[in-house]
Amino acid sequence: MKFLQIMRPLHWTKNMFVFAALIFGRKLLGPIDEVLLAVGSAVGGFFCFSLAASAIYIFNDIIDRKTDLLHPEKYKRPIATGSVTVGSAAVMSALCAVVAIVCSYLLIRELAIIVLMYIGLMILYSLLLKRVMILDCVVISIGFCLRAVAGAVVVGVFISPWLIICTFALCLFLGFSKRRSEIAQLREDSESFRKTLGGYTPELLAHMLDVTSGLAVVCFLLYAMDDRTRGLFGTNNLVYTTPLVLYCVFRFSALIQKARYSGPVQLILHDWPFQIGFVLWVLTCIGIIYANKFGNIFGNIWAY
Q1: DSSP 157
Q2: Per CATH, domain 1-159 is 2.40.380.10
Q3: Cβ(38)–Cβ(155) under 8 Å?
Q4: Domain-by-domain residue ranges, the chain?
Q5: What's the predicted TM-score (pTM) here?
Q6: pLDDT, tens only, 260-301
């Protein structure tokens, strides 16, 4: 149980970015064998990235085991408390990394390259880059972009540059949100826990949240209005999902700045108004993206 805990399975929700290509690549409808292959490949990519992320979580917890004792929640982590030894945790981290790399190579060689890039970047983050203000959040955002690219690679679809930039901006927003919640939680002890928090202020982070959320929304609109998007989906109607996008972004920002949750993952997993807004947006996107295919299906059924 302790070893499962240090793998942080709840944080595997971050790897849902892998599945974006299934929706926006129109792989959810078609010949059953092709759909099953695409879904199976995406699930495999999710599994590989979850193990790679767990390897990094464990590695990072080993490095931060002393500072975690200063955090009101992280002090309970098994490595910080000593209930899991550093040696055992290191073996578990290495095992997760090896399995992730091997499985991704067996799935598709390009995925293995992306997973290796992710692991290398996150090791560099844990050892050095997380101590550099702003760059710490930039590196985390690049990690999420690698997830989105991995999803496109495993299902064999083109991914729009606008979606990559949108993902990067959105994840910067999430990164700065986490820093904001940490400052709210730790108050005067924030710099002792994470040195970069000494350079952030609530006002600066509020400005960064405004900029990154605005950039993410604008990039999504540019993607929705792009000629290639219209050519692929036969419509630019994705632009009409903007109210749902804005609701989710604004609610997320408001709750984080009020310190209602300890971080983005907790908010996403526990705030049902946000969950409803997000699910409605996903369902609306699916309805718009697959409108032509739905029409063909129902047309064939009607013909019978």
Answers
A1: -
A2: no
A3: yes
A4: 1-159, 160-296
A5: 0.85
A6: 776 777 888 889 999 999 999 999 999 999 887 655 543 343
